[in-house]
Amino acid sequence: MSLKQMKKIELHLHLEGAAPPAFIRGLAAEKKIDIHRAFDERGHYAYRDFVHFLQVYEAATSVLQTPEDYARLLQAVLQESAEHGVIYTELFVSPDFCGGSDVAAWRDYLAALQSTAAEAEAKLGITARGIVTCIRHFGPDKARASALCAAETAGDFITGFGIAGDEGIGKPGDYLWSFDCAREAGLRLTAHAGEWGGPQSVRDAVRDLGVERIGHGVRAIEDLALVDELGERAITLEVCPGSNVALGLYPAWRKHPIETLRERGLKVTVSTDDPPFFHTTMTREYEELERAFGWDEAIFAEIHRNALDAAFCDTATRDRIAKDMELT
Ligand SMILES: [Zn+2]
What we know:
By secondary structure, the protein is of the alpha/beta class.
């Protein structure tokens, strides 16, 4: 079986960040919005560094203005994921971008997303769940509004809450109210940390916010006591190696700590983060991991088991995916 055909689970994918550039350019042309500066001459997303990446990301997102736009986006994204063997995916969605964190507007966006996800499940065999994500550099007040949207719509589709954005701004504890609100609504919790922030950012997210998963978290490797603590707490890492290499966090795949973290017993998983921005796909991630660390089918099965154990879905969905992937 080729790595492309291998059935996969993805836990860390930003909906807008997964937008194919051609889709965004097409939508910009329809709406007569000029965003040519977001692209290079080959039509790829163009950015200089992480902060500029966030700006280009937000420029691309600015053409997504209605529930219908988001429905079309989700359709394109799930189609792409399914082509790379993904049968279960969790997407970060932000009420900040979908209706300006107004609960009524958010419900309209969500209805469009949910019906698109149901269609994709029937047609493409891919199951999707949404993790409402607040944006760290938008500040704690906006995060509260996102958490309220999440709490109001927690259910079959919205199953988690998280935080993304610029890790250099504020501390995880500034967002405690939002995470408590989401937890009380029955949502599962994850937080981006240990990408641009060092090991302490991971420790803070785990201890202060009580999350069960960390987005990235790879810089935990710089503090082995923290690695042991993550193991004891059974924290799962949503590792996105291609993203880290593309953004220059590590100079090459072989230098990425995913294999060392795995060997030390941490539950690691593999995702693409914002794939077209990083010129990656789930297939490419698997190919590079096979090349860099000799990962074989047994290790990929271990990664899939980790992902399924940490997935923010109900037991019936988990059992169905486990059966489909022969992970029982
Ligand atoms: Zn991310």
